[in-house]
Amino acid sequence: MKFCNPHLPSSILAVLGFLLLLLLPFDQLLTGFQLGDFQTHHYGDLLKNLAIIGYGLLLIKVYGYVDVSGVFKWPPKYPILLHVPLYFVVLGLLIYAIFDYDFGAVKMEDFLVLLLAMLSVGISEEVVFRGFVLPHLIKKAPNNQSLLVPITSAALLFGLLHLLNLLPADAKLIVVLSQVTYATLFGVAFGIILLRTESLLPLGLLHGLINFSSNWDKLPGAISPTKTASYLQYEAVISVLVVLPFLWYILQQLPKIDRDKTYARFRNNGKE
Fold it and tell me: Does residue 236 belong to any structural domain of this protein?
């Protein structure tokens, strides 16, 4: 079985373009406005992710993947698959109740800023990695190759980006490696869901909601009087364990995808 994909180098270049946009200091465009640090950072993220969405849509358009990416397809097939990931939202919010967070001093405006920023993160990452990279790899995958190979390749490129979290001086290797693992497993599951539902926007919205529900502790005014240091240390590892049941369920959907028809559909779309 051949594992080499001639579209892998151009996929990596596309990810490097994503990375370049990711590292640009968009928040500096807002220095003239009277905003706090939290709002400046997240409005900057919103601008950055809008640029990344535009970049991803341009790649999808230029390479002819508009139809196979599902970027404008609605409603999705098998919508039940889009309900399953909502348990991550519930679990994320449950953590705040378990550890007795206090959000009484948080401004509603900051909640909305965080929501918009996280939704933009989810949509931008799905547009690039599931909307472009995944179709790009499927198009040139060998006929006898399992769809799991290009799905995992796209997910791994997404997961490895989280190594950037090693840059801060206080970064912990075990935490970052757990984040890489979590993101990769999540990317595999979302890749399969895309091929089953053939619709991209719901994945972006789900991705953003999951990010939103797990970032309330960063809101200005949020108080966590009982969150223990031990939980902070193992939080990322626990998240990997939480994603495993979701991945197991979604992997059961893979045999329901007709490999030959999928390869034919992707090869009949897009430029050579």
Answer: yes
Total domain count, the chain: 1
Q: Are 139 and 119 spatial neighbours (Cβ–Cβ below 8 Å)?
A: no
The CA distance from 118 to 24, in Å, is 18
Whole-number average pLDDT of the chain:
92
Per-residue model confidence as pLDDT tens digits over 54-65: 999 999 999 999
Residue 1 within a domain: no
**Do 41 and 166 contact (CB within 8 A), yes or no?**
no
- pLDDT for the residue numbered 197: 97
Q: Which CA distances in Å does 181 have to 158, 212, 231, 242, 253?
A: 10, 20, 18, 12, 21
Question: Residue 210 and residue 135: Cα distance in Å, rounded?
Answer: 24
pLDDT tens sequence across 85-115 = 999 999 989 988 888 889 999 999 999 999 9
In the numeric block, which tokens belong to residue 107? 């401004």
Pick from 152, 130, 149: which is nearest to 3 by CA? 149
Q: What Rg value do the Cα atoms of the chain yield, rounded?
A: 19
Name the residue with tokens 């200091």.
Answer: 25
In a domain, 3, yes or no: no
Domain range holding 196? Answer: 8-267
Q: In this structure, what token pair is assigned to residue 226?
A: 């009982």
| Residue with the two structure tokens 């939103």 | 212
Count of positions (residues) in the chain:
272
DSSP 145-203: S-THHHHHHHHHHHHHGGGGGG-STT--HHHHHHHHHHHHHHHHHHHHHHHHH--SHHH
User: Does 80 reside within a domain?
Assistant: yes
